[in-house]
Amino acid sequence: MKWLLDVLKGKWLKHPLHPILVHVPMAMWPSAVIFDLLSQWRIGGNAMVRLSFYAIIFGLVASLPAVPAGVVDWSGIKKEKPAWKIGLYHMILNLVVAVLFAINLGLRAQTFREATKVAGTPLLLSVVGTGLLVGSAYLGGLMVYEYGIRVARMSKKKKREIAEAGGANVPPE
Amino acid sequence: MLKDFLEGKPLRHPLHPMLVHFPIGLFILSFLFDLASLVFPFELYLVRDSFYAMLLGVIMALIAAVPGFVDYTDIRSDHPGKRTATAHLTLNLIVVAIYGINLGVRSSTLDELKTPIVPLVLSLIGIALLSAAGYLGGRLVYDEGIAVGRHKRRTPTPEDTLRLSTANDAKEGDVVFVSVPGAERLGNEETLRAEINGQVITIAKIDNRVFAFQEFCTHRFGPLSEGTFHGFDVQCPWHKSRFDVRTGKVTNGPAKVDLKTFRVETRDGKICVGVPCTT
Q: Is there a contact between A154 and B195 if contact means CB atoms under 8 Å apart?
């Protein structure tokens, strides 16, 4: 099991895995809103409706592997740290967003092959889902850029050597 | 201020890493449409949708380039991550150029059922280079801590490291005092980064007094010359360890080991830092 945890933590890549994987849903779902709106404005026709549909699917499929990688990163945060709670909200929000887009996809499945514009309900679901996603992703970003989660963890040894060479006091290994 | 906005300071989050999700995701989506068009040539609009996804990707890439470039200029010139950042920037410019050409090549074949070989190969090359560039961008954040905690800092960060020699200065016991050019011009909460006899030192002005202490945080060795000041405490930008600059003592974790501090004295109007003799 340890090997699986190491894979999910991205040790083999020297880079945490979760932030890499989330690029796809994070790009697909807001883009779906843009494609939905374009179709509403009569740009692109059925090609645009299909594009939005496929973007939502790709986002959903790609979000699946991001879940275990994210949970592993979150479980490495000490519970008393503020980032733990932020991570929890981030996780809950992301689950809600994924469910909303799954429903959204179901609503489109019957019509996306012929429709020339996206209907009101799926468009609304895209907008709401994207709004929540942006909020959730912002929390994810705060964990990195405000709280330094996973920052300089895998490069700690290299950094220690640089600090030692620079005459710094360093903690015992 | 425009620079602060482009660095995402009001958001407490850099803008560039937010925006890059779009080109990365959309270029991959575009390539999947290309592959799908080869497998399902009877499906309508796959080639056209590949083009649309790519077009939005290029637009977003150009938007992301602006805060990315501002972030780049903010990295200290002798920072170990600077070369990685240069490679990241160069690769991404090449990727955008390739996708620009790709869009041009495709624009006349939007109604085909299969993506032709030339744009397909261009997409494959684009994705390979983009993956490498994106990976380097991630290493900049997760290895080098670029932009981590930067929004907390109100004063500019040092642009480079002053490299000073003690050759011409007289020893006083086991310490030698070296004058630090520019230290007298520091504003409050501004810092210099200096390397004297191999010692890497942050020189900071707080409450009109100048202090000198080791550059590297004792937790994960973050850059204290890019930290923030809270009374006489310096806070590491990465994980918020705090140290009293007067004594070097840890005042807040996660760090557990105290900083090395150095004596600062004014001699003939020049600010001098006392570093241990090397011999």
A: no
Residue of A144, A147, A158, A173 to mutate, interface with B, max B Cβ within 10 Å: A144
How many Å apart are CA B157 and CA B150, to the nearest integer?
9
Asked if residues B23 and B61 have their Cβ atoms less than 8 Å apart, the reply is yes
The pLDDT, as a whole number, for residue A170 is 86
Question: Cβ B214–A55 below 8 Å, yes or no?
Answer: no
Rg of chain A (C-alpha set): 20
**Amino acid letter, A138:** Y
Predicted local distance difference test score (pLDDT) of residue A123: 95
Write down the ipTM of this complex.
0.93
Residues 6+ apart with CB under 8 A from A95: none
H helices then E strands: how many in chain A?
7, 0
How far lies B223's CA from each of A154, A165, B84, B86, in Å?
17, 14, 18, 20
> pLDDT over 90 for what percent of chain B?
73
Cα separation, A85 vs A80, whole angstroms: 9
